[in-house]
User: Fold these one by one.
Assistant:
Number 1:
Amino acid sequence: MEKLNINNQDILETIYELEKKKGKARLTDIALKLEFSKSRTNQEIKKLISMGLVQEDKYGPIVLTKLGLFEAERIMFTHLLIKTFLKNHLGLDEDTSEKDACAIEHIISEETIKAIVRHLEKDLANIGDFNLTEAEEYLVKKKRLSELKVGQKARILKIEGLRSIKKRIMEFGIIKGEIIELIGIAPFGDPLSFKLNDFNLSLRIKEADNVIVELIEEV
Amino acid sequence: MLRHEIALIGNPNSGKTTIFNILTGSNAKVGNWPGVTVEKKEGALIGNPNYQIVDLPGIYSLSAYSDDEKVAKNSLLKKPSIVVDILDSSNLKRNLYLTLQLLEMNQNVILGLNIMDVALKKYKEIKLDVLSDLLNVPVVPLVGQKGDGTEALINAIVNYKEHEIVEFRLPYGGELEEHLKNLEDLFLEKKVVIAGYTYRMLAIQALEGDEVVRSLLKPYGLDDYIQKEIDHLNSIFKDDLEMVFIEKRYGFIEGLLKKVLVRKKTIENSIGTSDKVDKIVLNPILGIFIFFGVMFALFQITFFFGDYIKSFLEILLSGISSIISTSVSNDILASFLNDGVLSGVGTIVTFLPNLILMFLLLTFLEDIGYMARAAYLMDRFMRFFGLQGKAFIPLITGFGCTVPAVMSTRTLESKSDRFTTILITPLISCSARLPVYVLFISAFFPDNRGAVLFFVYIMGIVLAVLMAKVFRVFFFKDGAAPFVLELPPYRIPTAKATFIHTWERVKEFLTRASTLILAMVIIVWALSILPLGVEYGSENSIIGIIGSFIAPILIPVGFGTYEAATALISGIVAKEVVVSTLGTIYGADGGGLVNILASEWTRLQGFSFMLMSAIYVPCLATLATIKQETNSWKWMFFVIAYTSVLGYVVSLVVYQLGSLLGF
């Protein structure tokens, strides 16, 4: 997947929050919240549409797709995790925690996330309204198929995306519950080759983006 | 006697084509690249001429997305007597998906479990009787490469009895099953009758949203009801209903395999040979080197060895020629035999060694499984020009002959990918253009043969890729189809299969050469000698007159002579005819023709002409294929127009620039 930049992430997060609070996200509200101009917001949203993360009905609200929701929840959990850490463990005030979490969430590494989770686990079960284990699952284990590293195995959880592509992929045997392993990356970084059951196949990053998997820890 | 139509179907790489060859005894193509079997092939069952076997395209499912799938689905709807489904036993899970779809279409299925030798190394046991009982179909184990089990398969076909029809009903369970039953009942109530479909089939495909079935049901006024059912079920399953069907089918297969497969107790964690090889062959850096190494070796072997054999043939031909000259007293007959037949077909025959070697190597690469890897390795690169990795295969095949290359684009799923590839394939230098290059390189670049030849081929590739980009922008803007490509295990092809496959291709070329080309050479000879009494092929002959008429247009590109113009005109019939026409006009062949050209043309003129013949209008056979594959005259004429303009522009630039620089 094309890596999400700060703007992409902020907009996804904002849509997620607006959907939660107001039931729907309108362009005006998103622009207002992020202090972007309307035309800039519109441009940014076009980018997200081309990435398959949001949908826009004409003059209607902007809606997260299932993949968009997946990404938004990732960002939201990261945010919550960092904020909780800053507030509860470093004793920072609400405002500072919130602001810094907003900045750190975009660049934090998986290793740091893991370390924070280990640290919080000692005396916390929940962050915000969410279970810490659930959040960890989202941040460390759940990935898009395109995000696997060579040699990593994962269990397939969900296939999203356009109907025709989804059907093609699924009929090939990429089905919920199957174990799939990334075995190689082609020159120039794309397509990817996978081992699935008894055969090897190749998918482009664009297609692998639509498959959400759960990393299997090597025993 | 009653005739039975037997349809042969299976996934790509299931060894279906090998089985077809054994069953029919014919010399059909055997390949390892997904989708070699594009054409519908037919043949009678060995020893049982009243059984006609139809080889359907290799497909993974009957979704009717690609042309291959449509062809297969439509043939199946006509309900063949028996469908022989060939499966790769070492990869049963995915292969059985198609089987379930066949059973759900209510076909009379025989399962041929191929590649059993590999499967039995992988699993402790495959309980064929259990599989046969559970699916209620005959099951025959096969090892196609060795021919094992084919007797049993023939027996199963000949002795097939349409047993008491127990309709195969995959249990979808719960809510889904209930709604399927409701629909079936409704069809019964409304007295729906649609040929080829059972109620169960109709119910499943209607809920899957199959457009054909939906439109078939429209006259019964059930469309709204079905849409409501789909919406209702979509909301229950929180997913597209089609996907639920796919998951349920795979769930059923999972259960089936638990009863059928006995896995080995110790799970071997060793990496298979194929994966080990891929670690090197598909390595992002090494892989590219290997790829270009393979392509370079292909050319070196083809031309290095080919040239040896060629020199023998040339000696042989000049021997025959001198025998004719001395023994045939009639001047016109001698001229006919020597200037027409021998210098025409003879020239083509001398380049056969190169052709056979090239085909042999391409076939080997295809059969061993390297072609799919090439598509994988080249995908990102090809996409830079608006094509996908699979398009590399037609382009590679294009080095052999443009006709099968254009035909092989059928494996491309999206129309845009397919048409773009069809349009650019003629720019790839086919082997028929080789004699033209060889002639001109021998005449003008005797010291740099390899380098110049390599340049012409590379130029073709570069132009093809650039034009692909242009066509993408102007004609085919929509996005590319999903790229799901199987990387089949490497298989050492049997020598027999490789030779059969090569022979098929050579035969195809020879048939063309011996009929179409010979006919054209004789016409050109006649045009050269008529009206009676003119000097052979001179400006006063018919062909000279036509050539002289066109020649002025060609002055800016360096070869505004009637000889050159005439050769190009006749080359549209088939590219190699350019050489034979020049031979006929100059009254020489082989080394003689090389010497005449070298003395009458400048090096720059020769070079410009060679580039023109590489690019301009493809041969008639190619044009006919393009018409057939695009189903439109428009695209055929477009190809004629754009290749002519492109060839003219390239030659013009090269000649004018070359003249300026003083070459």
Note: The first strand of chain A starts at residue 54 and ends at 56.
Number 2:
Amino acid sequence: MAIYSTNEFKSGLKVMLDNDPCAIIENEFVKPGKGQAFNRVKIRNLKTGRVIERTFKSGDSLESADVVDVEMQYLYNDGEFRHFMTPESFEQYQCDAKAVGDASKWLKDQDMCTVTLWNDAPLSVTPTNFVELTIVETDPGVRGDTSGGGGKPATLDTGAVVRVPLFVQQGEMIKVDTRTGEYISRVKE
Amino acid sequence: MSNAWQPTCSIESLRLRAKLLQKIRSYFSARDVLEVETPLLSHSCGTDPYLDFFTTTYEYAAQSNKLFLQASPEFAMKRLLCAGSGSIYQICKAFRKGESGRFHNPEFTMLEWYRVGYNLDHLMDDVEDLLVFLSKESLSLSTTEKYSYREVFTNVTGLDPFVFSVEQYSAFVIKHNRAEALTICGHDHNLWLDFIFSHYVQPSLGLSGFCLVYGYPATQSSLARINIENPEIVDRVEVFFKGVELGNGYYELQDAQEQNQRFDNEIQVRQEIGCPLVVKDDRLISALYEGLPDCSGIAIGLDRLLMILTESVSIDDVLSFSIQRA
């Protein structure tokens, strides 16, 4: 297991903190004129997603966390677990609801996504930035409205609910930004 | 990176630096302060347990061929003062290993000066005059603030920096979500002061103008002399602007024996915490025995001053080539 000292803390570095895998977001070196130097570090806990601030004495170190991001294909949901597969090696992983988290509302069978593995076990799932999904339910809109102002809720085939312009109809496929949950456009078939 | 040959700062920033250097020289020239140069490489170095040094070797004598890159020109300049130079200033590079970040580059530019016959109050006025002279065209400044360390520490935290109470200090950091301070600082009064000052006090200093903090605890004395009226404090000053430390100055300690003792104490601390070995500057001690004139001196980080004048986010924005591109 590698050990990283505070001066190696770079954005994106994966380390163990309080027994949880974490990712360094920001590392600020603070040194009083004549005295002990500190590193004020912003860290994301990869299990909970929470961002915390923690100060270290400069020169202190943390163990590395064996965390890797792997591109996988989403296969299916068996009710308890969702199953993913690496397209090159056909290796399969199952993720519980906790690991899948909010990604569940954007996951459609066969779509690609990023599965973060910690010690080869799924830690979290990140959908691609844009997904194309079908509207399974929405109120009939007013014809001729193309402004997009106002909008209406639409339920997608994954269960997600997004606001769409009034002119978008049930059965249509739309493009959604998974980071904001916002409608981008209609998708021409 | 394909553009790694390029400077990290703009050409405009280079011009500003050149102008800043000219203004500094005109300021000191008008006041009869002599510009000097001293070596960057020295056979000895400081003993500060919190500084790490770059070293190199030079094959000139079998018994001693290790050389240190200076962390500050202080010792050499004091030897000049002892030799009768009168008031002097220097603009030079200083080197500190392991210091890298938004406000730190391991190699940086320092302005250091000494004024013979000045006490700390005189020096503080001088610092204010120079800084305002250098920045009034670029910045609209409110009046320079001057606070004692105790006053500013207590105002911000409600704690007394001179009365060490682990309970009160702990309660304060826990309330402000930094419980890790308990592990880091333990029962070390100075560490607690460093932690609380740099996390809570410093960010609030000099938000609209320069801020000078004087009267540091005697335990953080370094090369400053103990205040003649209050042995709890030393005649040391730090300069801040927008929460950034710009400089550190002293009413200089003249007592050679006490300076030697402080060096030895620091060397012992270095050994206890496992810092690399240092070589004490015996030539400075000899010079102090010869006699340092009554004087005050200060060092200002010029790169940080440029950051402030140009409202830069990172020190890289004012360096021709930061360490990653050096």
Note: The mean pLDDT of chain A is 91.
